[in-house]
Amino acid sequence: MGTGVLEIFNELREKNIMTLKAAKEQDVKVVGIYCTYGPRELVLAAGAIPVGLCGTRQEPIAAAEVHLPRNLCPLIKSSYGFAVSDTCPYFHFSDMVIGETTCDGKKKMFELMKRLKPVHIMHLPQVPDQSASLEIWYQEMIRLKQVLEEAFAVEITDEALREAIHVVNEGNRALKDLFDLNQACPPLISGIDMIKVSWQLGFHTDRWARVTMLDQLVAELRESGGTQYDINRPRILLTGTPVGMGSEKVVELVEECGGLVVAMENCGGYKTVGLRIDENDLRDPLLLLAEKYLAIPCSVMSPNTKRLELLRKMAADFKVDGVIDLTWQACHTYNIESYQVAELIKDELNIPFIQLETDYSSSDQEILKNRLQAFLEMLD
Ligand code: SF4
Ligand code: SF4
Predict the structure, then answer these.
(1) Confidence class for position 380, pLDDT limits 50, 70, 90
(2) CATH class of this structure's domain 160-379
(3) 79/110 Cα distance (integer angstroms)
């Protein structure tokens, strides 16, 4: 990070711990969310603060492995490790947690997490384009609304829900504006900075302040013109499992080895920023939320054709030279789906492709570096 506004993002996580603490002292409720499927709008409409709890660091994994198998996705172990060791202030301050039945590892982990904190589980239907799935997910929105209302003794009105939809829409719009800057050649922001911004932003408790910060950053980067990046550096699209600060090693290695991650399809990247609710749609806002969240193209869906459609579009829009599919070890859904992603990228779009399977540790750093160097040389 080099420019003025970018610097501010560096400290958001630490600064917002104090804001959260102050809010708790005022009896404001905090709700932890582990997954992109968790509807932030409902939490906001309940007058509570939603915080992202997805674990992205190696440090708490040893504590998690006391209860969980070693051969499990590092994201699940890191998330549980933070909780069980009480080393994440955001988990600590959460009055309740929203879990979801996405992948098997996560849903079984939540059974253990329930011993530490109230966890409400949303049952996610996994065949996305069926009316029965939408009905189930709509009922899950109704159930979550009731749970929040009872837990916090509030009424969630349609008006509050529509306001929350508006601010979350604006947040997605602003983040998409930032990501879309990299459709330009040369790109305007590095992959590492994109991760820092989107990850740090998740800890900002003031939703409108987030939008303002993003808009300022976009304006500043547009003015910079991206001249700091060599136009000849290979343009990489990253897809696959979620990445945050602490688990950014593949992006860091790509950029160290001369490539530039110009776009990220994964959670925290482009996967959800295009999903916005039509604010002129007068149907039940809970149904609108159900439709929006059911459209997330995660590999837990079967079939997950929307991810392939999104990748096809992103490869063209961002003019990418190569695609890297990142899979966390023991993530079966992304690992298996990688075959279909490879078919699309290599066979149909004729773009070089590589899948990397790794975890949060640095033990395979050299192997990854060698593979990435070879991949990037091929693109040259
Ligand atoms: S990859 Fe899927 S399960 Fe994991 S956070 Fe994203 S939406 Fe949730
Ligand atoms: S990366 Fe895969 S295994 Fe890990 S939590 Fe997400 S879907 Fe589950």
Answers:
(1) confident
(2) alpha beta
(3) 10
